[in-house]
Amino acid sequence: MLLYPIQKLHFILMYYLHEAANGLSLFKVKHDKAKLVKQFEFERPDQALIHLNAQKTPALNKLMKDFQEIPDAKMIVSCKEIYKLVKKQFNYKPIVDEDQSIQLEKQIRDLLPSSNQMYLSHQYSRLQLQINSESVDLLIVESTNLLLQLDKEINLYRTKLFEWCCWSFPELYKVNPEKFVEINAIIGGSCKFLQDIPFLTIQEQIDIEKTASTSTGSELTDDEVCRIKSLANLILTLQSEKQKLESYITNRMTRLSPQLCQLIDSLTAAKLLTRAHSLKQLCKMPASSLQILGAELTLFNALAENGKTPKFGFIYKMGMTGGDARRLACNVAKAVRCDYFGGKLEDQNIKSGVKAEKDVGQQIKEQIDEVVFFE
Fold it and tell me: What is the annotated localization of this protein (predicted)?
């Protein structure tokens, strides 16, 4: 796997360690030519897979034992992975030179059989896929990114729906903003189909009909009404998918990090996990980084312009400010480490995180009551 110029190292015996799917071979290198000296074939194909996963094998033990008995000999390997394996298991440092090893591989290619290559490649790829599939972090990260994308699309479509309906019935949003999309899915922005809305109360029906009678909007064609209905139905479909995705993320996060989800809600925990890309990386972060996680762009802009840096990220959406946010970030860091490495968070930390938002609201309410009482 690598070769130094023989002219400079003519007094040193050079040997090349060759790896293949059928076994290991040791070649003697002389005058840029390789000659087979020792060969050890794997008895079963699974032995090649064990060797590929950097585990100790009888084949490597036998070849290294024979090699170490040769005085003044140097071993050439093709890559750093083999170098690390030999150094760790046998306390020997071979020579690594990928360019020189390519020349030797061209000579060795026709000397050894190439059996079991397909089996080894399939088994190794399957093992890597199994290891990757066991990580739930990737599923949560992708689901959270999809949820954020759905939020952007829903907001964009709602804006377009509002702008479109302003031409025909601009007063509808002020009368009933909560059911604006549901109403337009039936009436299509037109004032002609107000009697066909089944989910409105009698009072809401009266208010909408009264407002429609004095509306300043213009009439729409049948094609425009159909397009508004289609857009409203699309928004409702996306909102339904968003609710299902939020439920899925909540269930996954509760299983993956139950103690973290006791401190903060599951969606906020999933956003923190998404920014860190994995639970392992999240548990490595200090509390100060967790506190501003989610405000990285604002932080970089502030550092570039010498302005004030942000103090809160996703945790700010929990209603925490000042010392409460710092305490919550410290407890979040403890909870993540307990979930990843194993352990149990103290009940005092859990209670302080769960009730922190209520405590902040109670403090604000007490301050307002004091002001009112003083007046």
Answer: Nucleus, Nucleolus
149-154 own/partner pairs: CB under 8 Å, 24+ apart: 150/238, 150/241, 150/242, 150/245, 151/242, 153/238, 154/235, 154/238, 154/239, 154/242
Residue 297's identity, in one-letter code, is: L
Exposure string over 258-285, b if 16+ CB within 10 A, otherwise e = ebbbbbbebbbbbbbbbbbebbeebbeb
User: Which domains are present in the chain?
Assistant: 13-132 (3.30.420.220), 137-249 (1.10.287.4070), 258-374 (1.10.246.90)
**For residue 1, what pLDDT is reported?**
42
Decide which of 362 and 327 is more confident. 327
Percent of the chain with pLDDT over 90: 10
3-class SS of residue 204: helix
What DSSP string runs through 114-150?
-TTHHHHHHHHHHHHHHHHHT-SHHHHHHHHHHHHHH
Rounded alpha-carbon distances, angstroms, from residue 273 to 122, 226, 288, 323, 357: 32, 42, 15, 23, 21
What's this model's pTM, rounded to 2 decimal places? 0.58
Rounded-to-integer distance, Cα 220 and Cα 234, Å: 20
Q: Mapping DSSP to helix (H, G, I), strand (E, B) and coil, where does residue 334 land? A: helix
Taking only the tens place, the pLDDT of each residue in 302-325 is 778 887 767 667 776 665 556 677
Cα dihedral 156, 158, 161, 165 in deg (nearest 10): -130
Q: Which residues contact 369 (CB under 8 A, 6 or more apart)?
A: none
Q: Please provide the distance, in angstroms rounded to a whole number, between the alpha carbons at the two ends of the chain.
A: 86
